[in-house]
Amino acid sequence: MISRRTRGFCAAVALLVVVAAVPTFFVDGILNGTPVMNGSARGTALTMFALALPVLAVGLVTSTRGSVRGRAALIGALGYLTYNATLLVYATPFNELFLAYVALLGLSLWSLVSALLDPLPLLVPGSRLPVRGIAAFILTVVALNAFAWLRFVVPDLGEDPPGFLDGTGLTTNPIYVQDLAVWLPALAIVAVLLWQRRPAGVFLAGAGLFFWMIEAIGVAVDQWFGHQADPASDVATLAGVVLFVVLAAATLVPLVLWLRAVPSRADEERQS
User: Fold this and answer.
1) CB-CB neighbours of 193 under 10 Å
2) Which of 38, 145, 213, 226 is deepest in the core (most CB within 10 A)?
3) If you ran DSSP here, which 8-state letter would residue 180 be given?
């Protein structure tokens, strides 16, 4: 069961998603970046309140009752909101919602930390869970994702400005920074723990798959809105929509296997 501290943080995050994301999507004139980036930001905001917020709410209610699956969904949703609140802060030109974006980033991050500090469910992998198959899937996606970003970054080292920023209005790419410095290494560690059949790895793999599922859907949505805003831009394309729909479908397979294999409830003990 999650702590009262985490429940309070998550309730505040839910409120801030409404305050920050709803006007970002619906109110004209708030976003003042390039058309393609404005469209992408609107797609991200839509995913925040239409998908991540319901997953967060269901995860909060069910994990309060002791659900392991709900706890994983809660952490996955918080990971998604932390990731994308960072993009609202650093990839969206300064506007009247800046403080709401900062508050959402701060509370999402500390809610995630709080949820991870609560005793994690003790899960022993059973025969129904393809531990190494799921671990291999996570490591494969991590490697391909890192290669994809480095393929853009390395050739442009020393270029001013680098070509991968064309049409974005940005001075650097916070997606590359986040993925290469934080999220991809974190998921790689989780995959290794899962491969080793560590209880923490078994649980966190489910949370990571929830995060990736929401993120893949979110990127498909923001690619769609970005392309509609500026069809000539290479920043958001229909090919990008298709790619991330395929990734979401691929992620659904190990996620369903994980959901079917883990118990609905488990003894909660702090992992050493």
Assistant:
1) 18
2) 226
3) I
Please give the Cα distance from 211 to 79 (Å, whole number): 6
**What is the 8-class DSSP label of residue 1?**
-
Phi-psi category of residue 117: left, alpha or beta, with phi > 0 → left and psi -120 to 50 → alpha: alpha
Query: Tokens 């929401």 map to which residue?
Result: 214
Q: What is the DSSP letter of 119?
A: P
Does the predicted model carry a pTM greater than 0.90? yes
- pLDDT tens sequence across 132-149: 999 999 999 999 999 999
C-alpha 3/C-alpha 12 separation (Å) is 15
Which residues touch 177 (CB under 8 Å, ≥6 apart)? none
CA distance 248 to 145: 14
CA atoms of 49 and 57, how far apart (whole Å): 11
Closest CA to 127 of 261, 267, 264: 261
Instruction: Find out whether 115 and 79 touch, Cβ atoms under 8 Å.
Output: no
In sequence order, what are the beta bridge partners of 268? Answer: 121
Say yes or no to pLDDT of 219 above 50: yes
Residue 92, exposed/middle/buried by CB under 10 A (0-12, 13-18, 19+)? buried
**Domain residue ranges of the chain, discontinuous segments joined by +:** 4-261
pLDDT of 271 strictly over 60 = no
